[in-house]
């Protein structure tokens, strides 16, 4: 299957349970477009700076003579920049790591090999492919819980486990479904 990686296979084998076989592993691809968690603070920072900078740029003299006022205006800029830096750090951490499919589950591993998400193949009926991404379920619960969120639950969707920017998403999903089907057949026999 295209997209496999020797380092990913090694990390996946270290993360599996004894007797569990790794069927596929790949490195997480980097995204060119940031997620919603990064866009929120970026847009807020840009909007605040543009709205707050206009009066200062158009007539800087009154603002420069009142430095406490200028310092107070800068507090939200620093806070929003910090929020953006944390979001960028989280996004970078999320896009470094490995994906793996075993006989029993789908794993999303951090760069150091720690298991970030572990989704059983028993839930494979809820897996959905959208473009080059395989969503590993949970959308219905997040949709219901997110109705009361100010952003409509978009941040919750960003946190759901998914395999993103896959080279061969159809092949990976087919492997997952075949393996889930065999596991279900084995449970009926046993």
Describe it:
- The chain has 190 residues and is an alpha+beta fold.
- It folds into two domains: 6-30 and 97-189, PH-domain like, CATH 2.30.29; 36-91, no CATH class.
- 53% of the residues lie in helices and 17% in strands.
- The chain has helices spanning 6-15, 36-58, 61-65, 67-94, 139-146, 154-159, 169-189, and strands spanning 22-27, 97-102, 105-110, 115-120, 128-130, 133-135, 162-163.
- It has a four-stranded antiparallel β-sheet with strand order 1-2-3-4, with helices on both faces.
- Strand 5 (128-130) and strand 6 (133-135) form a beta hairpin.
- Helix 2 packs antiparallel against helix 4.
- The chain is elongated and about 75 Å long.
Keywords:
elongated, 4-stranded antiparallel β-sheet, PH-domain like, alpha+beta, single chain
Which whole number gives the mean pLDDT? 82
- What is the C-level CATH assignment of the largest domain? Mainly Beta
Number of DSSP E strands: 7
**Number of H/I helices:** 7
Task: Return the CATH topology of the largest domain.
Answer: PH-domain like
What's the multimeric state?
A: single chain
Give a short summary of the structure.
The chain is an alpha+beta fold. The chain has helices at residues 6-15, 36-58, 61-65, 67-94, 139-146, 154-159, 169-189, and strands at residues 22-27, 97-102, 105-110, 115-120, 128-130, 133-135, 162-163. A four-stranded antiparallel sheet has the order 1-2-3-4, sandwiched between helices. Strands 5-6-7 form a three-stranded antiparallel sheet, covered by helices on one side.
């Amino acid at each position: 299957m295209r997209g496999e990686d020797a380092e990913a296979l090694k990390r996946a084998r270290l993360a599996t349970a004894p007797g569990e076989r790794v069927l596929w592993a790949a490195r997480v691809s980097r995204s060119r477009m940031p997620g919603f968690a990064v866009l929120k603070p970026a847009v807020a920072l840009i909007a605040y700076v543009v709205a707050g900078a206009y009066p200062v740029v158009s007539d800087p003299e009154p603002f420069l003579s009142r430095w406490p006022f200028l310092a107070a205006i800068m507090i939200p800029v620093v806070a929003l920049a910090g929020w953006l830096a944390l979001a960028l750090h989280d996004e970078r951490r999320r896009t470094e790591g490995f994906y793996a499919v075993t006989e029993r589950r789908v794993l999303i591993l951090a760069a150091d090999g720690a298991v970030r998400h572990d989704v059983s193949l028993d839930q494979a009926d809820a897996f959905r492919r959208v473009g080059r991404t395989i969503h590993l379920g949970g959308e219905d619960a997040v949709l219901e819980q997110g109705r009361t969120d100010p952003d409509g639950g978009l941040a919750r969707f960003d946190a759901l486990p998914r395999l993103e920017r896959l080279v061969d998403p159809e092949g990976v999903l087919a492997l997952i479904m075949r393996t889930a089907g065999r596991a279900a057949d084995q449970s009926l026999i046993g």
